[in-house]
């Protein structure tokens, strides 16, 4: 009875398992993934932004670039921009809706469409997963289908060997449900090859239901602009070109880098 | 006063314009000015300078200084400049070119030539030359309207201009801008552009 | 011309074998190529194919192509009309905004083009470097160098590693007459792009000027200025050794 977990247990599996279990599950999941991708694409086709929305999000992008690269422009123009953008961010000049409040009422008609689309997308991702999972565990339960090439701790045994109630069976032998999970993660890579990197049939991220879509924060940008205003206010200018002449002279060997020892050719 | 444009000069200017059809192009005219009766201004060759979308004066100045040196080596004089505007309908003389040409004129002590390319004629592709010639007399006056001023373009130049477009050899012309990108290109002699 | 050569057989011949989206993208490129080479009738013929597919639906891309055909024919008023109508429906279509501006430039209507471009850049305030560069060119043509400099500063902020922007900025600073700043920006260009000929000429030019100018116009020591002039001369002489223009340039450097 002493289960020898260190010896590999060889089980002889019916080869037809390969054809009737492994491949069908993989093929079905693959097709479902493509179907999901197409549906999501159709759903997102109608999502176009308004001028106001574009403006406020690009204003944020601008602010970040400005803060990152401010040292490459002369100080006078830096000051000009600093003052202008501090005022602009503070007064909400570039905001779509300066009066937006945090909890954008989800039933509000203006919000409705984007919330609906978000929900549709979430469902399109979740439903196939649940359906597939129950299908797999219903039809393909009760036997092991594959041996994993690596060793896992005992905890996983319960998950991977669902439906197989032996205690001694080597953890490497897993049930079809685990094959389902492997496909879930693995096919993500294949999808990005076939559908391009921006596909909606990817794996792990869909498992956690996309709850950030639901509380549609209308004032997301309002907050961003305010915080950018603060950042812009405190940022200081340190001209990168201040000693560029010396840098060039040193680079071309006309001047030695030591300060006190200037060697001019 | 006779103004004579040689085949070489005409073809170089033509090639420069055709090579950069969507940009404004500028260049310098070289030749000899002789007194006598009649006084002649002979445009022997042209040196293309720029095809950038916006022309800036510092580059023109550097080009001019180098052309000056080239002239002394080859016993030529800077006797004018040429320019083609970007837009077809625009035949005004841009301010920068105006000042530039006046500068050349004063260095030459008068009688220099400003050739504005008539873009419509360039497109029309018939047997006329493509220029609107100007001379400075207090302000820029069209040469053909001044009495006793004659403007001749060597016939062979006009004929051959169709050829260089057909056989693509216009692409061998090099100006100062191209030279700055690749200094192995000779914009002063333009040897590769065979006339 | 290459576009036409490559795309035409694809469209005419294996028409059905291309994926739908790809096919129409290539068709669009083909139409634009025909407009570039002034073969307007061919462009219209292919445009009909697109029209048949889209039928009555509104498509901004299709409208843009209509506008471009009118532009090619020279009917600028009509083109402007088409673009304005399209923008009423599809506010954020960058391509159509830009065509509208392009028509005004082709029209010679520079002030209107500047106006429209400014409005466009109020919304699309980040990420569109080409728009800022075009605006800078327009300002320079109108002799408003200060504003042009502002535009180039914007692109530097977006992309501070591109030596061409620093070069442009330095050129404009020369125009304004701020030779000290110009010199610094030419130096930066040289830093980012070793042995850049334009930068070297620029350094030579600006520093020769600075040497002769008053103390209040410059912020570097005469020593540095002279060192930069020498550096520029030396580098240019070295680089020109392989050039047919060597003699002339050597003379030039002696001045």
Number of beta strands of chain C? 0
What would the average pLDDT of chain C be, to the nearest integer?
84
At the third CATH level, what is the topology name of chain B? Cytidine Deaminase, domain 2
Q: What percentage of amino acids of chain B are in beta strands?
A: 25-35%
The CA-CA distance between the termini of chain C, in Å, is 46 Å
Report the biggest beta sheet of chain C as strand number plus sense, adding barrel if it closes. Answer: none
Number of helices of chain C: 14
Q: Greatest contact pair?
A: A-C, 33 and 33 residues
Report the biggest beta sheet of chain B as strand number plus sense, adding barrel if it closes: 8 strands, mixed
User: Tell me, what is the CATH class of chain B?
Assistant: Alpha Beta
Strand proportion of chain C, as a percent range, falls in: under 5%
What percentage of residues of chain C falls in helices of 4 or more residues?
over 70%
The CATH homologous superfamily of chain B is named Cytidine Deaminase, domain 2
- Compute the number of strand runs of chain B: 8
Tally of separate domains of chain B:
1
How would you classify the helix and strand content of chain B by structural class? alpha/beta
Number of helices of chain B: 6
Q: How much helix, percentage-wise, in residues of chain B?
A: 25-40%
Poorly predicted sequence stretches spanning 5 or more consecutive residues of chain B: none
């Amino acid at each position: 009875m002493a289960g020898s977990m260190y010896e590999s247990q060889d089980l002889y599996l019916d080869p037809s398992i390969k054809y009737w279990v492994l491949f069908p599950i993989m093929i079905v999941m693959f097709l479902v993934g493509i179907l999901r991708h197409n549906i999501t694409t159709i759903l997102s086709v109608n999502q176009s932004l308004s001028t106001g929305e574009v403006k406020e999000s690009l204003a944020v992008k601008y602010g970040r670039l400005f803060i990152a690269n401010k040292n490459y422009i002369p100080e006078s123009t830096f000051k000009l921009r600093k003052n202008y953008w501090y005022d602009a961010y503070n007064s909400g000049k570039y905001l779509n809706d300066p009066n937006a409040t945090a909890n954008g009422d989800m039933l509000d008609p203006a919000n409705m469409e984007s919330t609906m689309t978000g929900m549709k997308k979430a469902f399109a991702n979740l439903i196939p997963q649940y359906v597939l999972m129950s299908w797999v565990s219903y039809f393909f339960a009760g036997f092991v289908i594959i041996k994993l090439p690596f060793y896992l701790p005992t905890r996983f045994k319960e998950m991977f060997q669902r439906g197989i109630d032996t205690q001694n069976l080597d953890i490497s032998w897993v049930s079809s449900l685990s094959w389902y999970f492997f496909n879930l993660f693995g096919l993500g890579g294949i999808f990005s090859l076939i559908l391009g990197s921006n596909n909606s049939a990817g794996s792990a991220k869909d498992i956690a239901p996309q709850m950030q879509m639901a509380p549609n924060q209308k004032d997301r940008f309002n907050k961003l602009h305010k915080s950018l205003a603060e950042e812009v206010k405190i940022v200081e200018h340190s001209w990168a070109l201040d000693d560029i002449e010396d840098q060039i002279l040193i680079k071309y060997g006309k001047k030695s880098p030591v300060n006190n020892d200037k060697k001019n050719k | 006063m006779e103004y004579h444009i040689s085949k070489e000069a005409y073809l170089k200017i033509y090639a420069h314009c055709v090579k950069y059809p969507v940009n404004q192009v500028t260049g310098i005219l070289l030749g000899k000015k002789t007194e006598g009766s009649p006084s002649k201004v002979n445009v022997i060759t042209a040196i293309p300078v720029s095809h950038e979308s916006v022309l800036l004066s510092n580059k023109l100045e550097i080009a001019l200084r180098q052309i000056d040196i080239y002239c002394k080596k080859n016993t030529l004089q800077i006797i004018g400049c040429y320019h083609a505007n970007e837009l077809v309908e625009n035949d005004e003389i841009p301010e920068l070119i105006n000042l530039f040409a006046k500068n050349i004129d004063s260095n030459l002590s008068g009688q220099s030539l400003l050739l504005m390319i008539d873009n419509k004629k360039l497109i029309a592709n018939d047997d006329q030359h493509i220029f609107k010639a100007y001379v400075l007399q207090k302000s820029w006056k069209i040469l053909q309207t001044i009495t006793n001023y004659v403007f001749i373009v060597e016939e062979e130049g006009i004929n051959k201009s169709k050829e260089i477009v057909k056989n693509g050899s216009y692409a061998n012309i090099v100006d100062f801008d191209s030279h700055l990108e690749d200094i192995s290109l000779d914009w002063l002699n333009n040897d590769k552009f065979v006339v | 011309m290459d576009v036409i050569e490559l795309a035409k057989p694809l469209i005419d011949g294996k028409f059905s074998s291309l994926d739908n989206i790809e096919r129409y993208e290539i068709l669009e490129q083909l139409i634009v190529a025909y407009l570039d080479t002034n073969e307007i009738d061919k462009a219209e013929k292919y445009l009909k194919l697109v029209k048949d597919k889209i039928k009555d639906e509104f498509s901004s891309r299709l409208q843009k192509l209509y506008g471009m055909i009118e532009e090619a024919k020279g009917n600028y008023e009509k083109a402007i009309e088409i673009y304005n109508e399209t923008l009423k429906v599809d506010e954020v279509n960058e391509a159509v905004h830009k065509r509208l501006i392009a028509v005004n430039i082709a029209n010679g209507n520079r002030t209107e083009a500047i106006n429209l471009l400014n409005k466009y850049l109020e919304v699309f305030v980040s990420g569109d470097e080409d728009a800022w560069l075009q605006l800078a060119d327009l300002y320079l043509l109108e002799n408003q160098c200060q504003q042009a400099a502002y535009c180039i500063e914007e692109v530097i902020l977006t992309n501070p590693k591109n030596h061409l922007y620093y070069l442009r900025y330095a050129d404009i600073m020369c125009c304004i007459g701020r030779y000290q700043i110009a010199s610094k920006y030419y130096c930066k260009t040289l830093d980012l792009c070793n042995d850049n000929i334009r930068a070297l000429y620029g350094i030579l030019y600006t520093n020769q000027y600075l040497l002769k100018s008053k103390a209040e116009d410059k912020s570097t020591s005469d020593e540095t200025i002279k060192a930069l002039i020498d550096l520029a001369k030396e580098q240019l002489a070295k680089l020109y050794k392989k050039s047919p223009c060597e003699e002339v340039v050597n003379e030039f450097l002696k001045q």
